[in-house]
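Consider the subject:
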Amino acid sequence: MPSDVTEPAARDDEELASRFNPPPPVIDLPAVAPVDRLQAVRRGRNVGEPAYVTIIIDDLGLNTVTTAKIADLPGPLTLSFLPYGRNLDQQSALVKSRGHEVFVHLPMEPIGDQDPGPNAIHSGQSTDEVRRLALNAIGAVSGAAGLNNHMGSRATTDGALVRPVLDAMQGTGLVFIDSFTTSVSIAETMALEAGLPASRRDVFLDNDPSPEAIHTQLMKLEDHARAHGTAIGIGHPYPTTIAAIREWSRNLRANDLNLIPASKLVEIRMCKRNPTCRPAGPLIAQREVSPRNACNLGYC
């Protein structure tokens, strides 16, 4: 009897993944992002300061079995769900019950012919349409703490597309992380200017999904955290990535690194140069009594 109940769902997962499972990302910049801007946010680490690491796993929601495997990883991780997945309420509830954070993975237009999936943000859409699609995506992923872009190497360079996405996020309490799939993305800068808590990805973990390459990228993530105090890595639900993170996480404490959710790391980054900011407190509540501009708050 149990197999009669679970097998159709498993077949549905496989069918959905076969239609929309994103291929390895096509990235037009190094797998480690430069740090030559927003130095006030990402200044160097002082002696004695702790080092914080965030790992975001993208492209979830298409396969419940894969989600369950990632939910079993040590955390807290930040798990980003595509809004066109199935049973998202159950999947997000599962990962949150295991101590992980949930994000919305918003499909946005890439450069090239990769398909970001249904209801993606595309050039030529009106402001109202982009805002509606963003609101629908946010509504599809319950309990999310933030949002990052899926693909988007074209859309994140177009202010006419980025602005209504950020407008949709106003008042939601969500943080924004630019996946930084292009070196000319303006999404993080626009989010900060709009007064949203925001940052961007530093290291892609699995452009090359081989175990050796992922290990190398995890070491780069550690190096970035030690040099700058914080680091954000993005990976994908590949078996090799899951295995590498499981092994890597065993030595975090010994390596004097702290694994934290993306939303908390954004707070730490944004409070770096503001002596009145307290990262442990609710950042949104602090912003509500101040001008709605991140630069006015001393964050940039």
